[in-house]
Amino acid sequence: MAPETKTYTGNAECPECFAVFGLIEVIQNEIKQCPECGVELEVINVDPIALDLAPEQKEDWGE
Question: Which domains does the chain have, with CATH numbers?
């Protein structure tokens, strides 16, 4: 049996612009975008819900 994946549905606050917006069935480590300021956010916890700025992806120049 596969381990249960916790999800969250409800409101969350952007740590960048403090806008409150709804989330539907998000899971930990999922990346969402703030509808107000457009910043990418990572779901770092679902119980209780916690968002943080998503880590920037480094460009891969084929090195």
Answer: 7-53 (2.20.28.160)
